[in-house]
User: What shape does this take?
Amino acid sequence: MALEWVVLGYAAGAEAIMVLLLTVPGLDPLRKGLIAVTRNLLKPFLSIVPFCLFLLMDIYWKYETRPSCEADSCTPSEHLRHQKSIMKSQRNALLIAAALVFYWLLYSVTHLVVRIEQLNQRVERLKNRE
Assistant: This one.
């Protein structure tokens, strides 16, 4: 199961880098290429949504089938393993949330940057007419 989390981590990282590159001022010469690359990657990155739902279901299933570790019913090593399992589930849920938020941000920022570019082109055409 570790491979799925690595893939999700890399995807979230790639989304974060693309959002950062689209929003950093001063990259105007590269912006058109970045917009084209990002727009082409939005559809493949949409597969993150069902992938995150699958991983969320996996976390839920592990939570439901996890043996309960009450205060006196388990050894210290079992208690520690139980606590580690809870921490990993929380970390993985946070990674899922980050990947989904970064996808939404990437989609929104790309849409806004494309819209701004279109409006700038319209302004230039209106200036050239006058």
Q: What stands out?
A: The two ends are 63 Å apart (CA to CA). Helices lie at 2-23, 28-45, 48-65, 76-129. The CA atoms of residues 1 and 65 lie 16 Å apart. Residues 76-129 form the longest helix (54 residues).
